[in-house]
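fyi for ur records
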Amino acid sequence: MTLAEYTAALQTCDWFYAYSDDHSVWQRGEEAMQQLRAAQRQLDPQGLIWNQHAPKECRISRNKTKDP
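which gave:
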């Protein structure tokens, strides 16, 4: 997947597929999300592009440590 394809996929992603009552919708969404996550790890390791397009509840947390 190219960076342009990754960005386009993020823009058209069904972020809330998991709430579907239709198992086939959930399954397609899960497969698409797995592909997006693989592309994210390769093309966008910090998740900057991901977070530009994802709704707040689907964003990647870049804060790996907890503040005291």
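The mean pLDDT is 91. thats all i got for now
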